[in-house]
Amino acid sequence: MPTHPYRPGPLADVAVRPDGDRWTLVFVRDLRHPPDKVWSALTDPAQLRAWAPFDADRDLGTPGTATLNMVGGPEPEPLAATIRRAERPHLLEYTWGEDLLRWELEPIATGTRLTLRHTTGDRTWIAKVSAGWHICLDVLDRALAGQPVGRIVAGDAMQHGFEELEKAYASRLGIALG
């Protein structure tokens, strides 16, 4: 149960890069927790339910197949996933439907520098993806600090600054919104 109010934090460092006929968002965020703690939040199904836009049918910390169920809509939307690399606590890479997510964790003096590379087929989605991950990672950081706000995804995100974040990331990335 959420116990703390949520307001989005400062924008993350972001870039968008072409990747063949696809696009990769590079989203860099410093978290105030050690890599091992962040790794557990990225892989453990119980912890994913606190912040991620999906539920996982198994721990994502080992290679193999999984199902990631998108949440927040009228019905969960199952998407096939393949965990390609799982090198605790530094690198996690998996497919998510047609997308590829690569999470890199680097220890820094204040905790962890998380670099997410999210590859998708449509450049116009990059600002939305940035806003979504921004909120999710804010919620993750707060949950790990013992200040949970509850998962904020889909329509709920609209009540928590999603549109403003999307516009800000679009501007930062040079992406025109439709």
Give a verbal description of the structure.
With 178 residues, the chain is an alpha+beta fold. It has one domain (19-173): Alpha-D-Glucose-1,6-Bisphosphate, Chain A, domain 4. The protein contains five helices and eight strands, in the order ββααββββββααα. Strands 1-2-8-7-6-5-4-3 form an eight-stranded antiparallel beta sheet. A hairpin with a 3-residue loop joins strand 5 (77-87) and strand 6. The mean pLDDT is 95.
Secondary structure layout plus pairing:
Elements: E1 13-19, E2 22-31, H1 35-43, H2 45-48, E3 54-56, E4 64-70, E5 77-87, E6 91-96, E7 99-108, E8 111-120, H3 126-144, H4 155-158, H5 162-173
Antiparallel strand pairs: 1-2, 2-8, 3-4, 4-5, 5-6, 6-7, 7-8
Tally of strands? 8
Number of helical segments?
5
* Straight-line distance between termini: 36 Å
- The CATH homologous superfamily is termed START domain
CATH topology: Alpha-D-Glucose-1,6-Bisphosphate, Chain A, domain 4
**Taking all residues together, what is the mean pLDDT?**
95
Using only C-alpha atoms, the radius of gyration works out to 15 Å
Q: What fraction of the residues are assigned to beta strands by DSSP? A: 35-45%
Q: Roughly what percent helix?
A: 25-40%
Q: Provide the succession of SSEs.
A: EEHHEEEEEEHHH
CATH architecture: 2-Layer Sandwich
Number of separate structural domains: 1
